[in-house]
């Protein structure tokens, strides 16, 4: 009968100390050692799987947060678009009302229709002293407010809307003066220009004053050259700070104000 080998039941570990003590032998059952190693492997596998699952969940959470943020921005953009659509509709309605109220005084023109006539065309040399006084009082010829010119007349811009006047920056509440004798044809509120004044002068001239803090004259009121008619402000949607937007029109066509003011000063 064949001799059967005894199965290995124990595993011995020989421990040799650094000192002179005798070596020791540690015997551990093979089944216990295998169970311990299996437990370590299981714990390592669980830790690895848990870490992988955590990072996967974290990535999903980050993606979800990004999607939520993008959805919030999208909803906010849609709300802004709806507000702009409502504002555009309101602006169109206000524009129609203003056009109706100013019918017969001012008409919107294209840049090719802009008047390039200067004040010298009025031929002052052929006028009497009284006639010269009348024309100078009726033509916008003085700065409407003391300040700094921040933007000039630009009717031919290819990238922005035409700027049919000049902007004069000054402190809020600075007096705004009538640039010539005339009659107030409009004094009221517009969405873009805030408090606006429009004065009709003789010889086909009109002057426009926008973004006022308040108007001090009423429609159909006669005003004199140099009279305080408003206080400078920052009202209306189309404004970036306290300033006066000033326009000069002649025969329903916009004119560069600085040209008239310079030439009148040279002739005075």
Descriptive notes:
Strands 3, 4, 5, 6, 7, 8, 9, 10, 11 and 12 form a 10-stranded antiparallel sheet that branches. The longest helix has 72 residues, at 30-101. The chain has 2 domains: 1-101; 122-267, Glucose Permease (Domain IIA) (Distorted Sandwich). With 268 residues, the chain is an alpha+beta fold. The chain contains 3 helices and 12 strands; from the N terminus they run E-E-H-H-E-E-E-E-E-E-E-E-E-E-H. Mean pLDDT is 78; it is low at 104-114 and 263-268. Helix content is 35%, strand content 25%.
pLDDT averaged over residues: 78
Q: Outline the low-pLDDT stretches.
A: 104-114, 263-268
Helix content: 25-40%
Main sheet, how many strands, which sense, barrel? 10 strands, antiparallel
Here the CATH topology of the largest domain equals Glucose Permease (Domain IIA)
Counting helices, strands and paired strands, the structural category is: alpha+beta
Order of helices and strands: EEHHEEEEEEEEEEH
**Distance, first to last CA:** 143 Å
CATH class of the largest domain: Mainly Beta
For the secondary structure, the number of strands is: 12
> What is the CATH-assigned architecture of the largest domain?
Distorted Sandwich
Number of helices: 3
How many domain units?
A: 2
Query: Which descriptor suits the 3D outline?
Result: rod-shaped
Give the name of the CATH superfamily of the largest domain.
Glucose Permease (Domain IIA)
* Strand residue percentage: 25-35%
The rounded Rg comes to 43 Å
């Amino acid at each position: 009968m064949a001799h059967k080998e005894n199965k290995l039941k124990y595993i011995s570990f020989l421990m040799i100390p650094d000192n002179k003590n005798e070596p020791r032998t540690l015997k551990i059952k093979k089944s216990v050692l295998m169970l311990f190693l299996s437990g370590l492997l299981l714990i390592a596998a669980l830790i690895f799987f848990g870490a992988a699952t955590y990072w996967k969940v974290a990535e999903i959470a980050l993606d979800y947060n990004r999607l939520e943020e993008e959805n919030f921005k999208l909803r906010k953009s849609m709300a802004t678009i709806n507000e702009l659509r409502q504002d555009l509709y309101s602006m169109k309605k206000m524009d129609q009302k203003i056009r109706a109220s100013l019918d017969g005084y001012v008409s919107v023109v294209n840049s090719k229709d802009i008047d390039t006539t200067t004040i010298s065309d009025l031929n002052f040399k052929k006028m009497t002293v009284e006639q010269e006084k009348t024309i100078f009082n009726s033509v916008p010829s003085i700065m409407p407010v003391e300040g700094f010119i921040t933007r000039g007349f630009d009717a031919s811009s290819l990238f922005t809307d035409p700027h049919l006047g000049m902007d004069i920056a000054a402190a809020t509440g600075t007096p705004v003066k009538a640039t010539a004798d005339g009659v107030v044809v409009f004094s009221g509120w517009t969405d873009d220009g805030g408090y606006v004044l429009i004065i009709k002068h003789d010889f086909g001239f009109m002057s426009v004053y926008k973004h006022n803090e308040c108007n001090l004259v009423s429609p159909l009121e006669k005003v004199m050259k140099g009279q305080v008619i408003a206080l400078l402000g920052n009202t209306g949607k189309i404004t970036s700070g306290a300033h006066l937007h000033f326009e000069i029109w002649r025969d329903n066509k916009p004119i560069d104000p600085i040209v008239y003011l310079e030439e009148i000063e040279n002739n005075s």
